[in-house]
Amino acid sequence: MTERGVVVDLDGTVLSGESLLDGAADALADLRDAGRGVLFLTNNPTRPPAEYAQRLARLGVDARPEEVLTATSATIDYLREHHADESVFAIAEESVTNQLRDAGISLVADARRADTVVVGYDREFEYTDMIAALRAFGAGADALVGTDPDITVPTPDGPVPGSGSIINAVAGVVERDPDAVLGKPSDVTARLALDRLDLPPAECVLVGDRLDTDIEMGNRVGMTTVLVRTGVTDDETLAASTIQPDYVRDSLADARDLL
Questions:
Q1: Catalytic residue check, 11
Q2: Which residue is catalytic, options 11, 77, 129, 214?
Q3: Which residues pair with 105 in a beta bridge?
Q4: What is the pLDDT of residues 133-142, one digit of tens each?
């Protein structure tokens, strides 16, 4: 294969909880040795790229912050491009709002002063947040932006509500579809990933464990797609899905022949 860039999902592809999946570090090192560009891509909006890079480095994986694209960093790039200098009211937990603030996004505490409402992962989401969204759009806010579409996220005790469920709740109460939902499989996020690698999609392969985010995004923009069995997708789910990867492998380590 002629691919020169590899977009790699993190949770379920490189990581399982706080640990590396077997063979992932060696596979990624082989990519570096072969001169491949690598971009790590995650829908987790709560950890900034630098924290992910440090975490990977502690586990023995070479990674730099600019090689990590998260749902929140994609949201920040989107806001800078489409809503520069606008006031933003955020419905999201502190780990997300801190990233927005650190990036220079103009956050407001009074929803009625907002031009744009950003919604993301929030374990303390409550009724008053939906009231705030109503007040924002009632006072003239004209954009609703979500960090990522994940309805649930896995935990050791089973799935819990993710950003997508909160975005849907806010969108329902303000009676409008989001103007953008970042993260995978967003075309905007795909473009940002390709820009980071500075390569066209035909020269990139995407490796991930989820059909509706990883594989859907790669297929949509013309990347070669590889589904790994180390995450959430089993063979029964794959067989029943209309979203199909170009290749299926047991793990990232087993996908080295395609990278």
A1: yes
A2: 11
A3: none
A4: 999 999 999 9
